[in-house]
Amino acid sequence: MNAQNFINALPFAKALGMRLDSLGDGHAEISMPWDARFVGDPVTGVIHGGAVSALMDTCGGAAVLSYPGAQTTATIDLRIDYMRAAKPGARLVARAECYHVTRNVAFVRATAHDGGDAPLASATGAFTFTGQEPTS
């Protein structure tokens, strides 16, 4: 399964309006628009952290699937450090890189931004995958 089909097959990713912006050899960039349905604090209009988490998780999985030889993937572990709230109304962008691969596990780093200078969040994760072991 390629990364765009992976995103299209995830109902939650579709509901969040995720779009694959860039993909290649262990790197992915996925964005999603601000949407009032996903606001976690109605007073400030800030997007819920769960939507940011889903964006980063999906981007990490896409990075794994873009690695040569990978066919399917699933998240084993994902740690997210939230650094600040997203700007209300801003498009969110996640970038992920698959930086190390073993026979069954791929390790990923990711960041999320809203166009500001500082990241909203950073993540590290481990993803299981099937397919031919990539050569690096």
Characterize the structure shown:
The chain is of the alpha+beta class and 136 residues long. The chain has one domain: Thiol Ester Dehydrase, Chain A (Roll). Helices cover 21% and strands 44% of the residues. It is built from three helices and eight strands. The strands form two sheets. It has a six-stranded antiparallel beta sheet. Strands 3-4 form a two-stranded antiparallel sheet. The longest helix is centred in the middle third of the chain and has 17 residues. It starts with a helix and ends in a 5-residue tail after the last strand.
Write out key terms for the chains shown:
single chain, 136 residues, alpha+beta, Thiol Ester Dehydrase, Chain A, 6-stranded antiparallel beta sheet, two-stranded antiparallel ribbon, 3 helices, 21% helix, globular, hydrolase
